[in-house]
Amino acid sequence: MNVNDLVQQRIEAARRKIQADRARRAQLAAARRRSLAARHSQKLFNLHSRDGNAGVGCQPAAEGQIPTVQPERRATPWKPL
How many domains does the chain have? Predict the structure, then answer.
């Protein structure tokens, strides 16, 4: 083995580490996106279940428009976690 071989081994090891780091960051980013989507989904579910059938009895939206429903919200006191 000469010095050039040792340098090439170190370069390859550094490349493998860089690729592993990129893969790990990509996996973490994907997990963050799934978690964020799940939190948003749960929040919408909770809002819908809390409001019940808030959209019942409202005027239908015009064709091509999104209906807007603003149900009466119960006043809930703020509680620290």
Answer: 1
Residue 31 located in a structural domain: yes
* Of 57 and 77, the one with more pLDDT: 77
Contact indicator for 58, 69 with CB cutoff of 8 Å: yes
* Unique residue bearing structure tokens 């978690």: 35
What count of residues does the chain have? 81
The model's pTM: 0.47
Lookup: tokens for 7: 């340098």
Task: Report if residue 67 sits inside a domain.
Answer: no
Instruction: Evaluate whether 52 touches 58 at the Cβ level (below 8 Å).
Output: no
Q: Which domain holds residue 3?
A: 1-45
Please identify which residue in the block is written with the tokens 């010095």.
3
Six-digit token string for 26: 């990509």
Residue carrying structure tokens 């603003």: 70
